[in-house]
Amino acid sequence: MELTLDAPIQSIPSIGKRIAKTLSQRNINTVGDLLYFFPRKYLDRSRIVKIGEIQAGQEITCLGVVRSVETRKAGKLKITQAILYDGTGYLFLIWFGERKIEKIIDRDSKISVSGKVTYYKGRLQIENPEFEVIEDESTLNLLNTGKIVPVYPSISNVSQKFLRKLVLNALEKTYISEILPAEVVINEELLPRHNAFYEVHFPENNQLLERALYRFRFEEIFILQTALAHLKFNYQKPDAGIAHSGSKELVDKFISSLGVLLTESQRQAIDEIISDLKNSKPMNRLLQGEVGSGKTIVALSAALFVASGGFQVAFMAPTEILAQQQFDKYAPFLENIGIKCALLTSSTKGRQRQTILEGIRNGHIKIVFGTHSLIYDEVKFKRLGFVIIDEQHRFGTMQRLMLREKGKNPDLLIVSATPIPRTLALTVFGDLDITSLKERPTGYDLKTQVKTVHLNTDKRHIAYEHLRKEIENGKKGFIVVPLVEESEKLEAKSVKDALDFVLNYVDKELIRVIHGKQTSLEKIEAIEAFRNGTARVLVSTTVVEVGVDVPDATVMIIENAERFGLSQLHQLRGRVGRGKDKAVVYAISDLPTEESALRIDAFVNNFDGFKLAEEDLRLRGEGDIFGYRQSGPSGLKFAQYARDLELLEKIRGLSFNYYLRFNDNNNSVKMILKEALNRYSNMELALKA
Asked: What CATH number did the domain enclosing 523 receive?
């Protein structure tokens, strides 16, 4: 009976309960899990050498006949010795420990053996070699020697030999169906899926191994892109949304009242978004921009357009600090032109909360600023027409969909202060249309406004002395650390470390502390004290990365700067120099690795957020790259963003065209979407939506 990829792992011969439990600890629970447990490297044992040609220090594979096998004890240690002869010379084989070698081979056994040759007491030998008994010399159907041999990630109490045997058993007994469309496999000259599994585990040669790995990269990207096409075109069906008819004149009046001069990028973004809002096809757009490029004004202009047409807007921020700041800064201007606003967070209590909830229910409140509190069941909108999610990478799919479901196909605008590398735009954000703000307001140039300096830890006093002088001149400064508390596992500065050090330069009453373990009220009070001047120094973790707007802050000291990503460092840099005075950012780091040195150098010398995002991706590799968007899939296993940009672009075109031709009515598309659900569990709600 043939197995399927979703068959339990115990369906494979040789796997009992004990082995199944061990494999389960590595998330290998099905036959498919085992076959997707790819080797971490390969040993090329395909070249057979004669014993008479080998030299000490070589990694070799040779074939021969066993001339003798004997065991002895050295104390409690069992030692097995065999002598191999191939007509050109003798090779001694030594195994240490209870391996029962003498029960597997005996005199006259033909074996293939691999390992590193050493010279000992005038003879060539291999200690603990891998070997295999040759029963049919015409085929040499070997698993461990005499070919390119897979080496798997280690699993406790499971040997490489046993793993290879399990994988071969699975391959021989499993029906592996094709998942990609036949036309794609043929046109792109891909290895069939079944062949690719064989070649990735037991490659015939290096060329077929490369083709197999390419096949899996291609398959992975095609499945993801087809799922993204499904998300995009199912949400954005014509006439499924709201054709808003707000007042552009009111938007212009709002912008004028703010006293800001829009950049060309902002004007284009507002026009682009309002054009989408006027269309009955639901908007599904990402607004990304440089530090200080004015994303919030663009988002609120769109919100005002929707509100002036009679619909409600939910503006969700990741933290109470950011929601409070947005409400305090912009609600007065909106209310002056007749748009009722409210702030709803977990700190909103009692009668005030009930009044706001009632105002949302009856439609009197048009724009609601808030946090995840907006998705609670008690929050019911009368006519929700537009959802804005600020700093969206801090929200998951479920939160986004729950907020959307409070209206009838409301338009969606996702705002990101972290510029998205092009490869991520094609994958993680592939279901969204993208608007980018690359200009900063007139007169605000980050490179001339903010100087960035790297200091080793033994020179950190220079930064703190500068901070002291700026405080004496009435300015303010940030100190950012990677840890809330001291850690035995990590050598990095904590809030306490920084606080102890800065007290040598600044009076205690001028310092406030803010970090993620504080209550929302404590954070807001610390920020407010810093903003109104009661405090002059804010010691913080990265909770100040986005949204904190204090124009007279002119110094930022980032301790252990190597522990932050480039995009994160760039965001932190954007917190200072926001007023008329120039600022300095000090990146304190002893540069413990080459990668950290390259990252800090890029940070000091580059002020383009889009370029830094690309460089961050290149330097840090894949990592937890989907931290950019938790609402996206859990990550790619085979494809690499930095390497596969051209492949991503090619496959995106193929998959989107294929989906548009067949939509969801085609069995091939259905099978691909089912596979996407299995692989990318975080996409589940979105794929079902």
From this structure: 3.40.50.300
CA angle 250, 252, 256 (to 5 degrees): 115
Token pair of 632 as six digits: 């996206």
Report phi then psi at 314, rounded to 5: -105, 120
Q: Look at the pTM and tell me if it is higher than 0.90.
A: no
User: Which of 555, 590, 625 lies at the terminal end of a domain, its last residue?
Assistant: 590
Element (H, E) at 648: helix 645-662
The DSSP bridge pattern shows strands 450-455 and 583-588 to be: parallel
Q: What is the pLDDT of residues 236-255, one digit of tens each?
A: 788 888 999 999 999 999 99
The number of beta carbons lying within 10 Å of the beta carbon of residue 552 is 18
DSSP-derived 3-state class of residue 270: helix
- The answer to whether the beta carbons of residues 111 and 105 sit under 8 Å apart is yes
User: Is the Cβ–Cβ distance between 417 and 270 less than 8 Å?
Assistant: no
User: Cα(225)–Cα(235) distance, rounded to whole angstroms?
Assistant: 15
- Measured CA to CA, the distance from residue 26 to residue 157 in angstroms comes to 12
Residue 138 lies in a domain: yes
Q: Which residues contact 172 (CB under 8 A, 6 or more apart)?
A: none
Domain shared by 393 and 477, yes or no: no
Name the helix (H) or strand (E) containing 558: strand 553-558
User: Cβ–Cβ contacts within 10 Å for residue 603, how many?
Assistant: 28
Q: pLDDT tens, 501-521?
A: 899 999 999 999 888 788 878
Number of domains within the chain? 3
Domain span including residue 506: 457-590
Q: How far is CA 575 from the centre of its chain?
A: 24
Instruction: Give CA–CA dist 69/47, Å, rounded.
Output: 26
pLDDT for 132-178, tens place per residue? 787 765 444 566 666 788 888 888 888 888 898 899 999 999 999 99
Q: Point out the domain boundary residue: 562, 590, 618.
A: 590
Residues 394 and 324 in one domain: yes
Q: Rounded CA gap, 236 and 240, in Å?
A: 7
Nearest to 344 by CA among 361, 329, 327, 331: 327
CB count in 10 Å sphere of residue 362: 10
